[in-house]
Amino acid sequence: MERVKTGISGLDELIEGGFPAGRSILISGACGTGKTIMSMQYIYKGALEHNEPGVYVTLDERPHLIREDVLRFGWDLKSLEEKNMLNIIDGSIAKLGMPSEEEFSLPVTGYDVDKLLLEIMRVIKRIEAKRVVIDSIPALGFNFENPAEVRKAILKLSYMLMRSGVTSVLVSEIQEGVNKFGKYGVEEYVVDGVIVLHYMGVGTQSNRTMHIRKMRATKHSEDLHPLEIKSKEGAIVHKIEEEYDEL
Questions:
Q1: What is the chain's Cα-based Rg?
Q2: Hey, how many other C-beta atoms are within 10 angstroms of the C-beta on 159?
Q3: Which of 29-43, 58-72, 118-132, 173-187 has the lowest mean pLDDT?
Q4: Which CATH number does the domain housing residue 166 bear?
Q5: Whole-number Å distance between alpha carbons of 126 and 123
Q6: CA of 146: how far to CAs of 149, 157, 163, 179, 186, in Å?
Q7: What's the confidence (pLDDT) of residue 147?
Q8: Considering its fold, how many domains does the chain have in total?
Q9: Residue 216 falls within a domain, yes or no?
Q10: The domain containing residue 46 runs over which residues?
Q11: H helices then E strands: how many in the chain?
């Protein structure tokens, strides 16, 4: 099976070399666990190191703030955008009925999955994208009345992204201590892989961890792995034995 390098140090060796090509992967976690960093790292490194254009759909944060934030890691998104190796679709304020200053955005006339998909497909075709990130799924759910509608919307997203040939990452939110892998409890059944991030406090110390809950067509690690966020490097997944060696 063809594999897509994630660009996240330490992750590929845990999933047989990378994400299964053409599949959709869910990255979920509570606030501050590193979801946006990991998903942007996947897009940025794919374009920079593997010559795979990517589309980043932001439904929560304003694009100019994302560009500023990731400069701390040395990630110059503007340079990739100018080369058409990366496009950001702004859906962060369309739901408020306000226009975006971004080149690619959702219309202020309405906010739904179909309009989002049309814009994503247009941009995928424009730059021949190989990777897509949608950050985040809960931002789509504000106008859904029940989990069945959420499931249908995520199924549609996953199916259309698969048809377009991209390998996609969908971001979702969970609360610490809650036994769910996505905000609505249905996301994990629709996607092909699930990566769960945690932020745990023990005494005066806090630690991030990563757990690969599932990855179809892949023999993957089932351990809880330490996750570190470092300046100039981004997210780094450590092996369990590395932590023991430091003790």
A1: 17
A2: 13
A3: 173-187
A4: 3.40.50.300
A5: 5
A6: 6, 17, 26, 19, 11
A7: 72
A8: 1
A9: no
A10: 23-198
A11: 7, 11
